Amino acid sequence: MTKYVKYVDVTKCDGCRACMVACKNWNDLPAEPTEFLGSAQSHAKTTADTWNVLQYIEHENGKGNLEYLFRHSSCFHCTDAACEKVCPENAISYTKYGTVVIDQDTCVGCGYCTQNCPFEVISLKEYKDKNGKEYRKAHKCTMCTDRIDEGLQPACVTTCHTGAMEFGDKDAMIQKAEQRVKEIKDRYPNAMVYNPQGVGGTHSVYVLAEKPSVYGLPDNPKVPTSAVLWKDYAQPIGKAMIGATTMAVVGAFVANKIFSKKANGHDEDGGGNHE
Amino acid sequence: MSNQQKSEVKVRRFSKAFVWAHAVNAISFFALYITALPMYTEFFNWLYPVLGGPANARLLHRIFAVVFCTPTFIWVIFDFKGFKLWMKELITWKKRDIQFFSEFVKELFGLNFKHVRQTFFNAGEKINSLIQIFTAILIIGSGIPMWFHEYFPRAVVQWGYFLHNVGFGLSIAVIVGHIYLSVVHKNSRPGYSGVVTGKVPAWWAKDHYTEWYEEEVKKGNFPNLDDPKHKKNKGA
To answer: How far apart are alpha carbons A67 and A57 in whole angstroms?
Structure first.
């Protein structure tokens, strides 16, 4: 199956926020009124009801000039997704397109994914059932997997009027990003393709005008070592140990029965066959 | 020594404080185990509806987590002497403790074995205690940042998940053996009444904790089972 990539060229973005609106519209997400945060940016980061946020960054470049940088931020859809690894209910899975989605019916709201995502894009939402009982579910961008299923592109991509976003075949999009970086090197010497290999590459690939840290992104994001040790080692070894001790006591029980039969009528009151 | 005498004479092994501390520890551990089991393995997801849903399971897990922290305090406050003895025993290791294990393996599988002289706690109980203390520290220490994650750096919370898992895996593996020995295994089974009532059969205490028993005899606390007088008066 073809893997798809959402290509985001931040240098073409004009900060119109149509991507945010299109996302809310398609995914039926309620508005989240916020206080003034000191810039034109509407939300500090993605939330359970705001799956993409347009970042507005006032950055002083190498020449001492002000650069007004924009970035459409949302889930990266990692190839090795930490959220998928740590989910105890297998509620998070990879789709055939390479996107990472959360099954809302299976999610138990434990928050392991929110704590382990290297990009901090997943959030929990509080709900109340008809009896007033509270429960939580984890939410994030789905890359409009439901639209891809229907042969459509993600809502944010479709609505982008500057061509800053495109959606297509993974290799073609990565090539396009590399080509674009070459074109803009004169204006943005620090420009780079952001497709971090620490998480096996991502399915949202960025052309960044500046270093990742300028956008608040990790330079080398990866699945936390603790998560690898926890899920690939501690848990299977722990389960094996429970099995091993259970087998040992079952073995001991059977052996005791056999030996006490052999002892033939020896007392069974705990005095045992010793001394 | 007749069986009748064996079953009749009892001596106090544990204080009421220990009995309570042990019971609170056991019940809360078991409750924590049950309320987290569906998170540990999907095989037990049917427990979610039993526990009133994932949110309720989380709430119960937190309530029992607080209860799980109390046994040490119960023992320290109400029987500091007993607690001190436990601590002292845990750091006292002699050659006979190593010998204990080779005999214990024979005993475990029902083979002929000799009792190695032990003090109040035998070497196996000391190992069990040390592992339970270590895992309790791991589980409680990692549980705090998992619960109050907003006050801790992300890395601490992430390592907390790992350590919670390690602590749990280690402690449950040891507890399977601990419960088997106390409830099922015929030679150590009388110890079970010790943690429930505080009292154990005198002959059993003498066999399993000879040095401790003899010390108590010297102090005049326990009957001397070898004394023909005692046999005559208190036996049968």
So the answer is: 8
> Cβ separation of A249 and B168 shorter than 8 Å?
no
How far CA A257 is from CA of A238, A251, B103, B184, in Å, comes to 29, 10, 19, 11
Which residue in B has a C-alpha nearest to residue A127's C-alpha?
Answer: B55
Question: What domains are there in chain B, each with its CATH number?
Answer: 3-233 (1.20.950.20)
Touching check for B172 and chain A: CB below 8 Å? Answer: yes
For residues A247-268, b (16+ Cβ closer than 10 Å) or e, as one string? ebbeebbeebeebbeeeeeeee
- Please tell me which residue of chain B has the smallest CA distance to A89: B42
Q: What's the number of CA atoms in the CB half-sphere (13 Å) around residue B83?
A: 16
Q: Could you tell me if A264 lies within 8 Å of chain B, comparing CB atoms?
A: no
Residue-wise pLDDT for A153-206, tens only, equals 999 999 999 999 999 999 999 999 999 999 999 999 999 999 999 999 999 999
Q: Measure in Å the smallest separation between the Cα of B69 and chain A Cα atoms.
A: 22
Instruction: Please tell me what DSSP assigns to residue B115.
Output: P
* Cβ–Cβ under 8 Å, residues A222 and A118: yes
Geometric angle at alpha carbon B182, from B179 and B185, rounded to 5°: 105
Stretch 231-250 of chain A: residues touching chain B, C-beta under 8 Å: 234-235, 237-239, 241-242, 244-246, 248-249
Provide the Cα torsion B102, B104, B105, B109; round to 10°: 150
Per residue in B41-70, pLDDT (tens digit) is: 888 999 999 999 999 999 999 999 999 999
The domains found in chain A, sorted by start residue, are: 4-221 (3.30.70.20), 224-275 (no CATH)
State the nearest Cα–Cα gap between B85 and chain A, in angstroms: 27
Which residue from B219, B225, B179, B220 is spatially nearest to B201, judged by alpha carbons?
B225
Asked whether the beta carbons of B115 and B99 are under 8 A apart, the reply is no
Q: Give, in order, the Cα–Cα distances in Å from B151 to each of A48, A119, B156.
A: 21, 19, 10
Distances (CA, A) of B107 to A195, B21, B188: 61, 28, 9
Q: Does B159 touch chain A (CB under 8 A)?
A: yes
> Taking Cα atoms as reference points, which of A168, A4, A26, A23 lies closest to residue A99?
A4
Task: Label the pairing between strands A192-194 and A204-208.
Answer: antiparallel
What is the distance, to the nearest Å, from the Cα of residue A15 to the centroid of all Cα atoms in its chain?
Answer: 24
Answer whether B173 sits within 8 Å of A241, measured CB to CB.
yes
Sign of CA dihedral A76, A108, A88, B36: positive
Residues 6+ apart with CB under 8 A from A158: A22, A152
User: Per the CB < 8 Å rule, is B53 touching A251?
Assistant: no
- Residues A10, A13, A16, A19: is their CA dihedral positive or negative? negative
Confidence of residue A221 (pLDDT cuts 50, 70, 90): very high
Cα-flanking dihedrals φ and ψ of residue A161, to 5°?
Answer: -90, -10
